[in-house]
Design brief:
- The complex is a heterodimer of chains A (about 280) and B (about 325).
- With about 280 residues, chain A is mainly α.
- Chain A is built from 11 helices and no strands.
- In chain A, helix 1 packs across helix 5.
- The radius of gyration of chain A is 21 Å and the shape is globular.
- Chain B has about 325 residues and is α/β, with parallel strands linked by helices.
- In chain B, strands 5-6-7-3-8-9 form a 6-stranded mixed sheet, sandwiched between helices. A 4-stranded antiparallel sheet of chain B has the order 11-12-10-13, covered by helices on one side. Chain B has a 3-stranded antiparallel sheet with strand order 2-1-4.
- In chain B, helix 6 links the parallel strand 6 and strand 7.
- In chain B, helix 3 packs across helix 4 and helix 4 crosses helix 5.
- Classes of the chains: A mainly alpha (about 280), B alpha/beta (about 325).
- Chains A and B meet through helix 1 and helix 4 of A and helix 2 and helix 3 of B.
Chain lengths: ~280, ~325
């Protein structure tokens, strides 16, 4: 055997795993809540457009802040978060519970390739679903505003904002996906650590700047094109921090993903099939 | 053919503990090509042994190698090995064909090759007609056959099968056993665990008897039985024209433990600690012309008898 690494084989195997996993991600009852989460912002802005066709209070600035609020407080913190919990945690954990993980372990595939293939399948699935949700909800908002104000579809910075939201959506899937993939490997009941992450991500707004940086949401919100102002009671306790520049936030999230995938690969190499103990 | 470590499945002082629970202990084995059957009661360590040779679990102590390949290298091992586990579970939302095809693609095969290999395997297990039905709609026997097809789909040299006849109807059992024979004739290692002892007896080239995590006997079943003659004398049925005369001669032998006339009075059941001396006596009487022998056959040198003698009821139902 030559000393060259079989990259072509690994790539073929990664694609095969990706195809197989995507089929599973999109099919079955387990996918329904993810579809609903991805469709929620579309339904919300669609309902708004239908119920308020004239929308007297609508103006581009206010609408942009409303969208930013929905995107940061609902799409990022809840929809993508729980969508990634459902998809990524089950990539390995779900197969252990369904007693079907051994089929991969009985294939001539390096466990690292398996981790990458499964992770990519989760990433493609969530980016497709939540990216589509973000795209459609933003398009509905823009179309509604354009019809009310009789302006172009993408007036002002709308198109660049759409690009930024789509990019943040992809990065959210990337970051949360990596976190929940590894949780599904390390914890027998990963729901408890997932709840802990949810609480941590929710309270970051009240944490000092240094602690904020130990979260995914801080970097994602730093990349959002519109900042949401904190009002009411929570504003008293909120601690502001300078947003992290994109050149740090994006490589930071990518770095976290690579680190977590390496950790997952080490874990999966040592994993035994012992469904009886689950 | 000279056996080397590279054409054997080797266990060197292998033990496996699940926490404080013993899986198998101090196993030394060197399994040659052919059909090898693992026999033992529930919990005796059959599945653990199979999981160890396929790397699904790692040994707590000792080393395993399959044709020279350690199970810790699945990317090499499963080019030459296939394992049909006892888990009756499948990836979601797949048809039988998709199941085979998808995992052949995971092996790294191209579209056409994966398609051809899938159908070849489906043909071998008689599942072509049901190929495009969802596995979720399969019967237990069909699920068993599609698992078998998946294990053989890449044409492995080592095939490990955990209770492969479970859930199969008699016709499918016969076809499956015939398939094992073909694979063994082609030079494969076929490792089977089964609790259906008479089927094991039909098919095995060698057996490994397990009890409470220990290998209690291994080898060709007649050889294993041969080592037990002192503790468990061999029972031989001789069908001849004059069983009474044979009985009178046999009684005089010190190696004979018991002699019984068969119920049809045309045969004699002789229990002996030294079968070779007994066979010599029968030959001598035939040559003398004192008896005409129709057949001479041991009645308790099969897997079932060996199992009963070595393991008995200590482990519950086998």
């Amino acid at each position: 055997m030559s000393g060259r690494l079989p990259w072509a084989l690994w790539w073929t195997q990664t694609l095969a795993i990706l195809r197989l996993e995507m089929r599973k991600n999109f099919a079955g009852k387990r996918a329904i809540p993810v579809y609903l989460l991805a469709a929620a912002p579309v339904l919300l802005f669609g309902a708004h457009a239908v119920l308020s066709p004239n929308c007297e209070h609508c103006d581009p600035g206010r609408t942009g802040i409303v969208y930013a609020g929905v995107f940061q407080l609902f799409v990022l913190r809840l929809a993508i978060f729980f969508g990634c919990v459902a998809i990524f945690m089950n990539l390995f954990r779900g197969e252990v519970l369904e007693k079907s993980l051994h089929y991969y372990f009985l294939a001539p595939v390096r466990r690292e390739v398996l981790v990458v293939g499964k992770y990519l399948s989760g990433l493609v699935t969530t980016v497709l679903l939540f990216g589509l949700g973000t795209l459609l909800s933003y398009l509905i908002l823009c179309a509604h505003l354009a019809s009310v104000k009789n302006t172009e579809l993408f007036a002002g910075p709308a198109l660049s904002h759409l690009g930024a939201y789509l990019g943040v959506t992809a990065l959210a899937c990337l970051g949360y996906g990596a976190v929940f993939l590894v949780m599904g490997l390390f914890f027998r009941n990963p729901i408890i650590p997932a709840v802990a992450v949810l609480i941590w991500e929710s309270i970051t707004v009240f944490l000092p700047p240094l602690l904020k940086k130990i979260s995914v949401i801080f970097y994602l919100e730093s990349l959002c094109p519109v900042e949401i102002p904190y009002r009411g009671g929570s504003a008293i306790f909120a601690i502001s921090a300078d947003p992290t520049p994109a050149w740090i936030a994006i490589p930071g999230l990518l770095g976290l993903t690579v680190l977590v995938i390496l950790l997952a690969s080490l874990r999966i190499r040592r994993t035994e099939i012992n469904y009886g103990a689950e | 053919m000279t056996a080397t470590l590279d054409d054997r499945i080797v266990f060197e002082d292998v033990s496996k503990f699940y926490g404080e629970v013993l899986g198998v202990n101090q196993v030394h084995l060197s399994i040659p090509p052919g059909i090898t059957t693992l026999v033992g009661p529930n919990g005796s360590g059959k599945t653990t042994l199979m999981n160890l040779m396929t790397g699904l679990v790692r040994p707590s102590r000792g080393r395993v190698s399959v044709l020279g390949i350690p199970p810790g290298q699945p990317e090499r091992l499963f080019r030459i090995a296939g394992y049909c586990t006892q888990f009756d579970a499948f990836p979601r939302a797949l048809t039988g064909y998709q199941f085979l095809y998808s995992f052949l693609r995971v092996h790294g095969m191209g579209d056409l090759q994966a398609h051809q290999f899938s159908f070849k395997a489906l043909e071998r297990v008689g599942m072509v007609e049901a190929a495009h039905r969802r596995i979720a709609a399969y019967s237990k026997g069909m699920r068993q056959r599609i698992k078998l097809a998946q294990a053989i789909s890449h044409q492995p040299a080592v095939l490990v099968l955990d209770e492969p006849l479970n859930g199969l109807d008699p016709m499918a059992r016969a076809e499956t056993i015939a398939l094992f024979r073909v694979l063994a004739r082609e030079g494969s290692h076929v490792i089977i665990s089964s609790h259906i002892l008479h089927e094991v007896d039909q098919v095995s080239d060698q057996v490994i008897l397990l009890s409470n995590g220990y290998v209690v006997a291994e080898g060709q079943i007649q050889a294993v039985r041969g080592e037990m003659h002192l503790e468990h004398p061999l029972q031989v049925l001789v069908r001849c024209n004059n069983p009474s005369l044979l009985a009178s001669r046999v009684f005089a032998q010190d190696h004979v433990a018991e002699v019984k006339l068969h119920s049809d009075r045309l045969g004699l059941l002789v229990t002996t600690r030294d079968p070779n001396r007994f066979y010599e006596l029968v030959n001598q009487m035939v040559l003398e012309g004192t008896i005409d022998v129709e057949s001479v056959a041991p009645t308790d040198d099969d897997v079932h008898s060996v199992y009963e003698y070595l393991i008995g009821n200590e482990g519950g139902a086998a």
